[in-house]
């Protein structure tokens, strides 16, 4: 079992990671040019003194493509969240958007959990669960506070309107119905 675990860890490692930075930069440039084949890149690396197969080059290309795709997705999500923050001063929507992004990322992690569960430390799992619980508790606390503030404002409004319009019972009744209807939607 230990040998199997070591083998899995070894397979995740790519020889290209250990190349000098200047060679990796050139390699990345060559990979970005789709006219270069993995075999040509492998031959170029061999000419530079690095015995790296075309399969290793291909795996590295896939890994870097996956990483760049994830980075682009993350950047897009953050830009959308920033746009929402600029357009709206509604902290509830901003918080909800951030939680949705976090939920998607956590769901992705859970989907790949089978591969990583053996390496996950129990304390890390507990920290993650605790963090999610705290976030939920904080969200519930904010909602309860907002609800209380809405209700207080609602009652203050009704009292003030009742005083101002007590000599106009028909208008007061219509305004109270509109106010009650509005409050029920919050």
What characteristics describe this protein?
186 residues; mainly alpha; 82% helix
What does this structure look like?
This protein is mainly α. The protein has helices spanning 2-12, 21-32, 38-47, 54-87, 91-111, 113-116, 122-164, 169-185. Residues 1-11 have low confidence and may be disordered.
Beta-strand share of residues: under 5%
Level of helix content?
A: over 70%
Order of helices and strands: HHHHHHHH
Q: How far is the first residue's CA from the last residue's CA? A: 57 Å
The mean pLDDT is 79
Short summary:
With 186 residues, this protein is mainly α.
Show the helix and strand layout:
Elements lengths: L1 H11 L8 H12 L5 H10 L6 H34 L3 H21 L1 H4 L5 H43 L4 H17 L1
Helix pairs in contact: 3-4, 4-5, 7-8
């Amino acid at each position: 079992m230990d040998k199997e675990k070591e083998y899995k860890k070894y397979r995740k490692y790519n020889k290209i990671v250990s190349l000098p930075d200047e060679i990796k930069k050139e390699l990345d440039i060559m990979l970005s040019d789709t006219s270069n084949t993995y075999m040509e890149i492998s031959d170029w690396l061999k000419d530079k003194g690095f015995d790296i197969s075309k399969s290793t080059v291909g795996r590295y290309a896939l890994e870097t493509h996956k990483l760049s795709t994830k980075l682009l997705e993350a950047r897009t999500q953050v830009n959308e969240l920033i746009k929402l923050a600029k357009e709206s001063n509604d902290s509830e929507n901003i918080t909800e958007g951030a939680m949705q992004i976090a939920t998607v990322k956590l769901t992705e992690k859970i989907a790949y959990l089978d591969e990583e569960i053996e390496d996950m430390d129990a304390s890390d799992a507990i920290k993650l669960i605790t963090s999610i619980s705290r976030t939920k508790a904080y969200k519930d606390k904010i909602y309860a506070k907002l609800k209380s503030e809405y209700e207080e404002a609602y009652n203050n409004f009704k009292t003030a309107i009742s005083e101002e319009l007590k000599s106009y019972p028909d208008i007061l009744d219509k305004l109270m119905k509109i106010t009650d209807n509005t409050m029920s939607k919050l």
